[in-house]
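Researcher: Before we compare anything, I want clean individual predictions. No alignment, no superposition, just each chain on its own. First chain goes here; please echo the sequence and then give the structure tokens.
Model: Echoing the first chain and its structure:
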Amino acid sequence: MTAARILMTGSREWSNGPASVDALNAAVNLLGSSSRQATLVHGAAQGADQLLDAAAKHLGLATEAHPAEWRVHTASCPTWCQGRDTCKLAGHRRNAEMIAAGADLVLAFPTHSYALAPGENRERTSRGTWDCADKAKAAGLPTLVIWGPKLFPFGDAGLELLTRAAHGKSIQLGPAGEMGVVDAWLPF
């Protein structure tokens, strides 16, 4: 068994505890690790981050929190952001830092689809989740999206990971390259 670093990103509206536990079990299994050798990296935000942190601790995973520094502005902040009490870009900076630190697998827990539907309220989206998933995919990290009871690959590295797992378990992936979360973590 090998040590595993699992980065998660998720919506502040995510509240599915059973799917969170199943996804963590799946991630550990997909990486050939054990709970005692895995670390969950998260952004310490409300919603998915807190829920997954609790689930990880319950399963015996170590956790590593990276809270955004909302009151810190940097030279890269645009002028419109400089005079505000909170930096609108702090979450994006935090996501980029977590990805730069590296991970063996990224799990994304959005509550809204990738693209906005016509007329959809931009305030109630999973923008930060998708931004982090996009950055992870661009960095070549295997990225999986938890949507319903399935793991969907988000990029080639995620598809490669699920393809290897499916081959090893002699199961078929779905038409989008997806695998059932439970199929991914059951040991057979």
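Researcher: Okay. Second chain, same rules.
Model: Second chain and its structure:
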Amino acid sequence: MAKGNIRTGITVGNGAAINVELGWIPTHVQVFNATDGTLITAAFLSWVLPFSGGGTAVIAPGSAVRGVTSRATATVRDVLLYSGSFAGGDAAGFLVLDEGSLVGTFAGENIVVTNLASGMLGTDDATVTANITHNIAVAAAAAPATGTSAISRYEGVAASASQGFTIGSVLAVEAKVLRYLAVRDDA
């Protein structure tokens, strides 16, 4: 699959959520109501997993992690540490997950690193909250966008190329032209 994709397009709102199929999941999407010129909504669709300390195992790019309760799994693309340290057992920050590696949904739970040098699972390596993406709506001032007012990932059906993004029903105003820009980075 090609990397570094950029796609622009136009769709018409129908008052319901709209799945825009691209064949890949974008890392960033912007949707603009071109008829009214009133709203731009932007979304960063990479999965981000907030975490806090638990154990002393280092979670590094390339680490495979698993939820103890949910059994969700993913591979870590990047670790954004904002306080503490792994050595001290009090590290806190965000795990950016590799695109396509997430299986399941993490809950507020402990996670373990599954590819330690010993080949064994870790024990309470960190505590996470839930999978998140970041959306904003820009009308007059930037504000968080959630639920039907947001853009979300469209994973499609297993073993198909119907991946892309979903424009929430509040954004998909009936009979309005919606222009979009979808970008996927090279990583």
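Researcher: What stands out in the second chain?
Model: The two ends are 12 Å apart (CA to CA). Additionally, The mean pLDDT is 81.
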